[in-house]
Amino acid sequence: MIDTRKKIVIIDDVELNRAILREAFCKSYDILEAENGLDGLSVIEKNANSLVCVFLDILMPVMDGFGVLEKLRNTNIIRTVPFFLITTETGDDVVKKAYDLGAIDFIQKPFNLLIIKRHVQNVIELYANRNQLEKMFNEQMNTITVQDTELKGTQWAIIDTLGQALESRDVESGNHTRRMKEITETFLKQLSITHPEYMLTEKKIQQIAQVTPLHDIGKIAIPDRILLKPESAGRLTDEEFEIMKTHTIAGCQLLNSIPNFHGSQMYIYSYNICRYHHERWDGKGYPDNLLGNQIPLEAQVVAMADVYDALISKRVYKPAFTHAKAKEMINQGDCGIFNPDILQCFNETIDGIYEQLYAKGFKL
Amino acid sequence: MTFTEAITEIGVNTEETLRRFSGNKDLMEKFIRKFPQDNTISDLEAAIAAKNYQSIEETAHTLKGVSGNLGFTQLYELSSALVNAVRAKDLATADQLCPKVTERCHTVINILKKIDA
């Protein structure tokens, strides 16, 4: 490849034109010639990798210059190799057609080599630089894509490990985290239909659902004596509950410790869900007492799912409530106040969710 | 007659034309001496005889390119004028120019034929 001289193709039925152009460029380039468009096309295709420029006559037997350009339309060749049309002075319609078909410029007869040589050389260098830049760009993009995939894989491995660590402490069953994902996704889909103003796209819904299992990740940092306090020891004291509340912020700190996770959309959703899934619409939640839509939407929806799942499951400090009771308690505001739009989604979908996830026992 | 004498008689701007051939005098001479064998002239004459103006335009256009590149200034200007006249559909002017173009062609050819072998 390195030793291959760069090539110029001259396609013209007039020998005189080919001879003049050959003489002008043969010192710096290998010159290939063709007498009509069809032959020219096969020369171009055979030498596609070492071409730096094509001179193309318009009027030729068998296949004219426009025929060649049309055959090469939308190919890589026409993008990476400059095509100069050989003309005597030409009408505007021909000029426009040639440019539209991808010709870079014209060289006029009678040839003025002083201009042609400089002009062609400049364009060849310009194309070489551009092709080189494009090649470098593509190589770097490929590298970045590979690294990005590896990085995302690492991030998810870390996140998954955190989730497993939490489950291994017997805090939440794996089923809880999986149900949370299902419920959140159902709420979000319903919300996207009934309330398009939230601008929930399918992609956004999937991204939020994917990070939902992280909502309680901060519980890893809560001491056993509080997290696993047995029923026989009584409910959490005020002081213990204050420590329990810190799982929201502890979760964010864990997320921050994942390398290169910051700044990604997934990080933002994860962060918001960890930190704000105990906030309430009326400002009476924790840890930041956010009010109304100050609470990120993804956290509002996860909170709704979390509350229902907690009510309907048995916990050390409470029995499992029935579906009807849980629905009633939520609508009465027993578990805090929710965004009316999300409460509406809850009421529209929760019977179906219950049927699917709880009534028959949840298996994944 | 020498080659140099012939192209001087035709009125070739030698310096400019030689530059077009990248200073290769042999190459320039080769193509100038080949001009009498060019079919374009007979094609043009046939087109004129048939009063086929599209063909006249095309052959005159080819002749314009060749004569321009060879430095045959007068022939270049006459064939340019003929192309323009046909394109402008000014057939009266075209009809006047046709014999002038072919006449000039033959003048150039006759001079070239006088070059000693």
The tally of strands of chain B reads: 0
Cα-atom Rg of chain B, whole angstroms?
A: 14 Å
Largest sheet of chain A: 5 strands, parallel
Number of strands of chain A: 5
Helix content of chain A: 55-70%
Whole-number count of domains of chain A: 2
Q: Mind summarizing the main beta sheet of chain B? A: none
Mean pLDDT of chain B: 92
What's the SSE blueprint?
The complex is a heterodimer of chains A (364) and B (117).
Chain A: E1 7-11, H1 15-25, E2 30-34, H2 37-46, E3 51-57, H3 65-72, H4 76-80, E4 83-87, H5 92-100, E5 105-108, H6 113-168, H7 174-194, H8 202-211, H9 224-227, H10 238-245, H11 247-256, H12 265-276, H13 297-312, H14 323-332, H15 340-359
Parallel strand pairs in A: 1-2, 1-3, 3-4, 4-5
Chain B: H1 3-10, H2 14-20, H3 25-34, H4 40-49, H5 53-70, H6 73-87, H7 91-113
Explained architecture:
The complex is a heterodimer of chains A (364) and B (117). With 364 residues, chain A is of the alpha/beta class. Chain A folds into 2 domains: 7-140, 3-Layer(aba) Sandwich (Rossmann fold), CATH 3.40.50; 169-359, Hypothetical protein af1432. Chain A is 58% helix and 7% strand. Chain A has helices spanning 15-25, 37-46, 65-72, 76-80, 92-100, 113-168, 174-194, 202-211, 224-227, 238-245, 247-256, 265-276, 297-312, 323-332, 340-359; strands at 7-11, 30-34, 51-57, 83-87, 105-108. Chain A has a 5-stranded parallel beta sheet, sandwiched between helices. The longest helix of chain A has 56 residues, at 113-168. Chain A is elongated. Chain A starts with 6 loop residues before the first strand and ends in a 5-residue tail after the last helix. The mean pLDDT of chain A is 89. Chain B is an all-alpha fold and 117 residues long. Chain B has one domain (3-113): HPT domain (Four Helix Bundle (Hemerythrin (Met), subunit A), Up-down Bundle). Chain B is built from 7 helices and no strands. Chain B starts with a helix and ends with a helix. The relative contact order of chain B is 0.17. The A-B interface holds A 14, 16-17, 19-20, 23-24, 59, 88, 91, 109-114 and B 19-22, 24, 27, 31, 34, 58, 61-62, 64-66, 68-71, 76, 83, 87.
